[in-house]
Specification:
6 helices, elongated, 3 strands, Arc Repressor Mutant, subunit A, mainly alpha
């Protein structure tokens, strides 16, 4: 247990502390996955891309680059990271690759970015 000189309490609630530690241990794997997700979405370009794809359903690199007024190369790198993390999936139609939010991540992502798109 860490001791802080600035914290003063009359007594230690060891039962509460142990209960909280047990709760964190029980969700450790789930938390690790969410930490990775938040780290990915902590980048403005990736967050905007996910927000776009939650609202537009599918876009190609060219579309995203035009919307964000960026070059295709950095957009492609961000898309790869999101795809590798299982947040996005892609389909090829001829020479064009379209990206969409993975169905199993849609609800979670919507809850994270809910306020960013005015509750649409």
């Amino acid at each position: 247990m860490t001791k802080f000189t600035a914290c003063k309490r009359a007594s230690v609630d060891t039962l509460m502390i142990e209960s909280a530690q047990d709760m964190l241990e029980a969700v450790e794997i789930e938390l690790a996955e969410k930490v990775k997700l938040f780290a990915l979405l902590g980048n403005e370009v990736r967050l905007k891309t996910v927000l776009l794809l939650l609202n537009v359903e599918r876009l190609c690199v060219c579309d995203i680059a035009d919307i964000l007024k960026m070059n295709q190369s950095p957009i492609s790198q961000h898309l790869r990271k999101l795809r590798d993390a299982g947040i996005l999936e892609n389909t090829r139609e001829g020479m064009t690759i379209y990206y969409a939010v993975a169905n199993e991540k849609r609800t979670l992502l919507l809850s994270i970015v809910k306020g960013a798109n005015n509750d649409r």
